[in-house]
## 1
Amino acid sequence: MTVNDRVMPVLDAVLAGRDAPAALDTWCREDVTVQLSGLAIQLRASSSTAARYTRSLFTPGSSLWNAHDDAISSTMTMRTIALPTNRVTALAERVRLRARGVSRDVKMHAQAPARWHRTAAGPVLVTDTGAAIAPQVVARHADGYTVITVDDTDAAMNAARHLREIGYRRAENDGWVCLHASAATIDGRGILFVGNSGAGKSSLALAVAAADDGAFLSNDRTMIAISPDAAPRAVAMPGPIRLNGGTLSALGLSHASRWNLARPKPASGSDWQSFQGSNKLHILPEEWRERTGTPLLSSAAVELIVFPQVIHGNHKIDSCLTPLGRARRLLAAQCMSPGDDIYVCDWLSIRHGNTDKQGVNSADVLDALARRPSMDLRFGTDTPYRTVTAAIKDRLDALPRT
């Protein structure tokens, strides 16, 4: 009898409420503890991939999230079991058959519809059969979660993503707001790059971070909080740096396609080698530091905001100061807050407070950011990054230190 054969009846008993989640500890031999805004959750995983990825995802640590290998006191446990797809699908179907009463539809992200079912064991989520992610089952217990996921490299990272979701919602409860933005620093001074996908946020943040006295903070998702008489504070949302081949070549890193990374590279026949390719290489910040020597920071005060626009096939560059009203509109378009199109579902029900309060807090954060110095920056895919970063540094040097 294989390991998968032996664990299946135990999983079925846990999901049916006949056994406690601790019965799975025999198969969960990889441990890491993550602190999320004061809440410590121990991840116990059957897969070393899940534990390794979680450690890397939450590096460097910050005041919002941090990973520990040392034993620290935890208040919750997340157990994660990786199985072949057909076994996860079979467990999901058994949950559907056992469901009692009204179920609740949610979205784990835009292309991942799922449903919470009421069962004797408590609420259990299963992904829809048409979801754009591998099937998984998530059971919620009084003292944590059981995550049953597919044993391929990508899906084994789901537990880390769920931990990040918990941390994000706890931070949101504490007044933090998430922006679709990247961030870097020069000499410790924070620069926020805000714009739509393809605007050049990631490439600019990495180019600035590679400059003298530069450091990388975040890619694509940045948490912002405000306090009286201080500049807005930026903290990285844990996640990979997503880059296409054109950007890597412009950064002088065309050899990055040969890097051995936690997440598999896009298929050779995909469009990831182009500047506007939808498929991208996923590189964790810690992997980026190891391979490029770029310093990493966990937080910084926002001293300058850049609204980039990259023009394909162009080599020119121009910039101008951004009027306050325009800055406010551009920031609001990239803010994850109630009423915005990119506000994602709180599928784990971590958030507390009403949406009116969330909306007021988001507006206050946006107002504070809009009052920071900002610039519109247009540059071409043929513009040397040293020229673009020099323009940003010149603008930053002209500002008084916060």
## 2
Amino acid sequence: MLFNSYIFILVFFPIVFAGYYLLLNLKNKSIAKIFFVLANLYFYSYWNVHYLPIMLASIAINFTLATILNKINRLRLKRTVLTIGILFNIALLGYYKYYDFFMTNVNTVFGTNIGLLNLALPLAISFFTFQQIMYLVDTFREGTKEYSLLDYAFFVTFFPHLIAGPIVHHREIINQLRDGSNYKIKSNNIASGLYIFSVGLFKKVIIADTLAGWANQGYNNIASLSMFDSWITTFAYTFQLYFDFSGYCDMAIGLALFFNINLPVNFNSPYKALDIQDFWRRWHMTLGRFFTNYLYIPLGGNRKGTARTYFNLFFIFFVSGIWHGAGWTFVIWGILHGIASVICRFWKGLNIKLPKFIAWFITFFFVHIAWVFFRSPDLTTAKVLLTKMLNLQTFQFPAGIASTFNELIGTHFYPATYYFDLKLSLVLVFILGIILFAKNSIERLNTYKPSYRLAAFISIIAVISFLYLNRVSEFLYFKF
């Protein structure tokens, strides 16, 4: 079920909202939680009910292992149980997400003919697997005896973050869930939630999905693209991904606020970053937090010398690439960000500061080029598109400019035939200006105060978005 769908907005969400708060009026709050967990499971299984047993098994096994960890005092035995739990989660993720990719490469390299399983990737498996690994590691480190199975299931299945994040730490949800003051409707949270949900819906339905049409058109017709067209295509995707993911994060925060749950910020104007480390402090922030706390630091972080620090930095981005998808394009994307992060760390050690504009330009240009691998279905497509983007020999002036030059200075410029309308470039420049100079939705939410003007604004963008819900499209991070 999509946040940007009629059935979610008009049916599922109103029923869950009303039912949850009505049941919270009972003395036994567990009934309301059970209702909510069941609603979450329905939300998850709406796409394909065959995914549901996988999630239920994952919840049951991880909670059981955590219960065992809480009862064990011997350190060696605890480490064994933790290792079993981590291997179980990695194996579950690896089997469904990477088996066919791995076997395809084995067949290519060794000339074998091992059959592929053609497994459908269970929704959200990358997200709920990482969240449960965090839970097991924290149980090993500090214990989680106070958790009930019901609270744990609520945390894992909470529908606002279930499908595409943020990757939430268990205490962030469960501590708020246990706060008795959150059992009643809070009008300020409702107002804030409606505001940021509407903004996120507009980002997704109007901006991201419009950009998606241009990006898909370009990627589906690469042979027809000029140098100019190839940049239009890739910028359309760069901005599509920005507003698609930003829109989802906003909508998730807004939906959680309706239930008095504050989700962590996961997106904070990453295209304003002045270096690649700054970019990753702003893009998919909870994924970066996971890799820092549960991979980078356990590997030694920056405590074991310069060479080891560089290796650790590179390795977490290599893993990040693999986490995003089972394909060589994602591996290359992760490697590029790993190399860039090592270079950035080295450069900072020299204490040389670039002018802000140059620092921003280098960062944005690198991120944009790397997105080509992220979006391309295969390495051949990425190579062809990058060649077109960087081949100055294929550049041609627009017809109007070419004719002007020919008249003024007697040259013989040949006008280009473009796949895209040149007006699209002005639209993309305008969008970039909004990204760089306007306050983002989180900044506006932090200073949000209800007013008639904002009410009118929310109403307008909500109605516009609602009218376009018929062009249903999944969020890009659903596939990861």
